[in-house]
Specification:
3-stranded antiparallel beta sheet
């Protein structure tokens, strides 16, 4: 059990303490945190991670199994999405008993 100590403080001091606390919390909440940087990888890196050839990667992208992002004239893949796809592929492999 914790000990509770009550003290008397004037109402004006209490208002100031509450106001300062609320102001500090509002500033903390209002300060935007930058979103984490998304790491993009090349087609070659993506194919190497997935263990497939570039034509297979191209086919999977066209079929919508993997999402490719066009940046300028190049196609890039989000590394996080590719790693999630690898985890799903491993899960399916073990579910089938292969």
């Amino acid at each position: 059990m914790t000990n509770l100590i009550l003290t008397q403080i004037p109402i004006d001091d209490l208002k100031i303490i509450i106001s300062d606390t609320i102001r500090a919390e509002m500033q903390r909440i209002a300060t935007p945190t930058p979103p984490p940087e998304t790491e993009y990888i090349t087609r070659n890196q993506c194919a190497r991670i997935l263990g497939v050839s570039l034509p297979t990667l191209n086919d999977w992208t066209k079929r919508g199994l993997i999402i490719g992002y066009r940046i300028g004239t190049r196609v890039r893949y989000k590394k996080g999405e590719i790693m999630d796809a690898v985890k799903q592929m491993q899960t399916l492999k073990y579910r089938r008993g292969a």
